[in-house]
Amino acid sequence: MKYVTEFRDQHLAHQLAQTIAAEVDPSRSYRLMEFCGGHTHAIFRYGVQQLMPPNLRFVHGPGCPVCVLPMARLDQALALLHEYDVTLCTYGDLLRVPASGRQTLLKAKAAGADVRMIYSTQDVLQIARTEPHRQIVFLAIGFETTTPPTAVLLEQARALQLKNLSVLCNHVLTPPALRAILTPSLEHAMPLDGILGPSHVSTIIGTAPYECVPRDFHVPVVIAGFEPLDVMQAALMLVRQLNAGRCVVENQYRRAVSAAGNLRARELMARVFVIRSSFEWRGLGFLPDSVLALAADYADFDAERRFPVSVITAPEPSGCDCPAILRGLKEPTQCRLFGSACTPDHPIGACMVSSEGACAAYWTHRAYLAPTAAAET
Amino acid sequence: MTLTPLSPAPTAPLDLVHGRIDLTHGAGGRATAQLLDTLFKPAFANEWLAQGNDQALFSVPPGRLVMSTDAHVVAPLFFPGGDIGSLAVHGTINDVAMSGARPLHLAASFILEEGLPLADLARIVASLAQAARDAGVAVVTGDTKVVERGKGDGVFITTTGIGVVPDGLLISGDQARPGDAILINGTLGDHGIAILSQRAHLGFETVLQSDSAALHGLVADMIAAVPEIHCLRDPTRGGLATTLNELAHQSGVGMRIHEAAIPLQPAVIAACELLGLDPLYSANEGKLVAICPAAQAETLLATMRRHPLGTQAAIIGEVVADPLHFVQLRTRFGGERLLDWLTGEQLPRIC
């Protein structure tokens, strides 16, 4: 397929791998965090780690929308279904994510709740217009990539004066998550050497919001596309920065990302959303100014106002190391639930649900991670 | 007043334009008889059905019999490249044919939902009958039931097929041996993505066609050319990846698959890219996986390519000894990945 297969070229990959191997400094290590689940998916799907020299390791970041959604927010969505009998629309990825007591939206649907998988926010609008007698709640989730479509939906709903549509907003912001990961803590035995910055998120917000990372944390950032050659080229750019002692934001994904991002999308987001003062992230805890809420003009469409449920706090499942895995502190295989109690068929932690989650990626590709360990099972 | 003999003759003809299925059609009385006589019997007309009994009586040719049954549920009922009627024939014939058998007869059982337009039912029955005729099999017995509105999805069709396996053939999922070649008869994922694009109203400019087809003719040619075929299986639900895992598990072997050798339509690749799906886990309804000794692989490939349902046939990998029964994929990129069983349902990714 044009503009995609070119970025999966085997020969270019081998040339890049040779260049990286030749340029890495054998006396040091390179711990590079790929922020997005999309990167993680590509690294595993195409075997990118195997092409890297042994002293260059990819550390998997928290950029998987379903992985960072805390259980309490899913419990809240389930409470809406039970207490108000609403129609809950959301993206497919979220349906199997476990809430408290291993409940999921998929199980709620099987038990009779009206849960619909949608592909686009325009599907939600269509449902709201064709089923005026139903209260339609869109469980909105995602980083800045999926936020503009939700903003469009809200503008349309307001223009059409729809009374049966509301949004349960969980649109999270990338820069606060990056800051949280880089903020030194006692847990951080192994600091990160570089960040492969988000690709699709950056098409919206541009490269400027990452400037704080080299400035405040002295860690270089390279915005990287989601294809395997993108990831490899970005890794090479980080290696070169580190070798030269440079520390700046660079843009590998120039075919899609500009410095300013998508101005129209940003304007739209600024009109429709405001920043919420605090929000819980799975794995990262409560982060200030890290999530969007509906602006005052759109408050009527806020599902949290329309359908109040008692505040739910759900503890993370015991034994689950997702929080440490999301911070890059542990590898999935170091979790004692990995592969035994927690598999993609019966996920306990969110990192095992989405194919973008680090645990699911490790499980799916277990044959190549530790051949001897795999052979013993 | 002249009395006429009692008969199931209806008082008014069935309205095939505006009429709908109602509960009387399932009550077993005149309305049921009218539905069968007007819609089903003429479409399926054959000597066994004409016996008019609750069972079909027929003699069987010598050899071993195989039998398979398949329940068909699909939304939408009509899709590019087929409908639930033709699908119900192809699905069961293919299950019978994967033993190397020649299919003989079909039984068809319909569960109809109250409110189903009779025009839709007529289309489905006609399509099922045509698919059976094209495949050279007869629908020799059947049943209809009606369920209340909301308790079905328009129509569910269960078909059961029998066939006869020529003596000397041993084609079974447990027969794959290290060194064997793995072949496929064409592009993968077409049915699943065609259905999905209809269901989700994705509005692709290219209309993807389901590959729904009866494969027994292709199988007959393959067996004639290479009687030593070890395994045949149609990769329906769960796609190629799941079928290969089933065969690896059943035969106690591993497999190495070459991604670059797997035929895929550009439109399927594009749709999967957009939705974050994997065509190797997407359903097929006119495809088969064949495993045969490596020495016969080229002969089998050439035979498949000569058949209209195998023009894009390819050798996609080989069976290896592996106590863990892993199916491993050599990617186009040059990496390796495990092709695992499908987990849950394939769900589109968020970003």
Automatic annotation (TrEMBL), chain A:
Q: Which organism is it from?
A: Allochromatium warmingii (Chromatium warmingii)
Q: Which UniProt keywords apply?
A: Iron, Metal-binding
Tell me the lineage of the source organism: Bacteria, Pseudomonadati, Pseudomonadota, Gammaproteobacteria, Chromatiales
Query: GO biological process: any one?
Result: protein maturation
Q: What's the family?
A: Belongs to the HypD family.
One GO MF term, please? 4 iron, 4 sulfur cluster binding
Signal peptide start and end residues: none
Metal-binding listed as a keyword: yes
One Pfam family here: HypD
Q: Which domain of life is it from?
A: Bacteria
What protein name does the entry list? Hydrogenase maturation factor
TrEMBL record, chain B:
Q: Where is the PurM-like N-terminal domain?
A: 52-165
Q: Which Pfam families match?
A: AIRS, AIRS_C
Question: What's an example Gene Ontology biological process for this entry?
Answer: protein maturation
Q: Which domain of life is it from?
A: Bacteria
Which chain regions cross the lipid bilayer?
Answer: none
Q: Which residues form the PurM-like C-terminal domain?
A: 177-328
Report the CDD domains cross-referenced here.
Answer: HypE
Q: Which InterPro entries match?
A: HypE, PurM-like_C_dom, PurM-like_C_sf, PurM-like_N, PurM-like_N_sf
PANTHER family attached to this UniProt entry: CARBAMOYL DEHYDRATASE HYPE, HYDROGENASE ISOENZYMES FORMATION PROTEIN HYPE
| Family classification | Belongs to the HypE family.
Xref: NCBIfam families? hypE
What name does UniProt use for this protein?
Hydrogenase expression/formation protein HypE
Give the originating organism.
Answer: Allochromatium warmingii
